[in-house]
Amino acid sequence: MPKKLFYSFHFDRDVWRTSQVRNIGSVEGREPVNQNKWEEVKRGGDAAIQRWIDAQMADRDCLVVLIGAETASRPWITYEIKKAWANRIGVFGIRIHKLLDAAGNPCVAGPSPFSDIIAVYDPPGPRSTDAYAHIAQNIAGWVDTAIQHRKRYN
């Protein structure tokens, strides 16, 4: 049975890269939020963003943080990580800097937003296609591992 995921990422900078991961299809997540909807949520201020995140994270099995160049510095990503841990769901990260953006460019690898107990996967290979293939082949197992890992910390 597919797991219910919440993807956390820097929307403005990484939405193109993250859509590649979300479209792999081997795991389930909520429908991606489009830019118009995200702008509408943001106009409601911090309280509206927090309510939206809380509602979207309800009944999820795992938080997948898609780590780009600036992900670790984003306050809402920090909130999502803390919320996931408090909700006792699996948490892990995937570095997406090798995946290409809409203009066909990779980005630099950013720092991890996690402590040492959270796994971060950095797909090997020099090309975007290598990274994508590695993520596609392994993401379902990473989700299962993160869920089992979190259960040990309850």
From TrEMBL:
Domain Thoeris protein ThsB TIR-like: 6-99
InterPro entries in alphabetical order: ThsB__TIR-like_domain, ThsB_TIR-like_sf
Pfam families to which the protein is assigned, alphabetical: ThsB_TIR
Gene3D superfamilies named among the record's database cross-references: Hypothetical protein MTH538
Record-given protein name: TIR domain-containing protein
Organism of derivation: Ferrovibrio xuzhouensis
